Amino acid sequence: MKNRIFIGCLLLLSLCSVLFLYHFRVEADSRTQQPAEGTAFSHDLFDQVLQEHVDKNGRVNYTKLKANPEKLEAYLDLLAVASPTEWSYNAQLTFWINAYNALVIKGVIDHYPTTSVRKVKWFNGFFSRLKFQAAGKTYTLNEIEHGILREEFPDPRVHFAIVCASFSCPPLWNRAFSAETIEERLETSTFNFIQNPEQVRIDRAKRRVYVSKIFKWYDDDFKEGYAGVADFLADYLPPEDAEFLESTDVKFQYLDYDWTLNDQKP
Predict the structure, then answer these.
(1) CA–CA separation, 178 and 53 (whole Å)
(2) Is residue 145 a part of any domain in this protein?
(3) What is the domain extent for residue 167?
(4) pLDDT tens digits, one per residue of 37-73
(5) Residue 201 carries which DSSP code?
(6) Helices of type H across 111-228
(7) How far is it, in rounded angstroms, from Cα 125 to Cα 26?
(8) Is the pLDDT score of 175 beyond 80?
């Protein structure tokens, strides 16, 4: 009897160890394929991937993309060896926004099927323990977002351009960002997000403003050129709503964040 209990405990411990190692190990995406010599960097392949696999609501057909990843993989090969440091500001910003969104998609299809990025790795490990190659170095998604985008390109509108593959994220556009239209795209992405009542809504009767948790998590970013979240929102709301936000007795309440995967599957 004691032997059976002992063996059972060993088996349970082994199972727990396997689960622990799976969820806490660091995974690195190794790029062995090198682009052909003389190949110029372009976001065209990623643009094609988005057009073919993302619908008008920003939902991704991960099933189809996982079965046909060739264009995405070829684009990631280009990302891995690109040298954006000598490019213009807009070109560099475009590179890192597209890189983040493409690598999120790569992380999802590598672990698909799943219903949420939070189920890929415990304790937010999808963003902190999956590693990818970009611009000649290895990065986690957190390192790209916090160490590059937020540090080197301090523009709060970036939060509405990068997509974490979840329902409460900004919707993924079915076109890649480009340096030529980056300013227009940032403005449109921000405007659309703030105009969406699922992300920002005002209850005048209760004198409350319900907003996405993005505005809570990155509160300091909305002080870059603004007096805070309310001042930032005012730029993208009708005048009467902007004036309401300036009232001293208005309270902000943060909406629950839905981490359900932005999958086209029902």
Answers:
(1) 19
(2) yes
(3) 26-180
(4) 767 899 999 999 999 999 999 999 999 999 999 999 9
(5) E
(6) 125-128, 141-142, 150-152, 182-195, 214-217
(7) 9
(8) yes
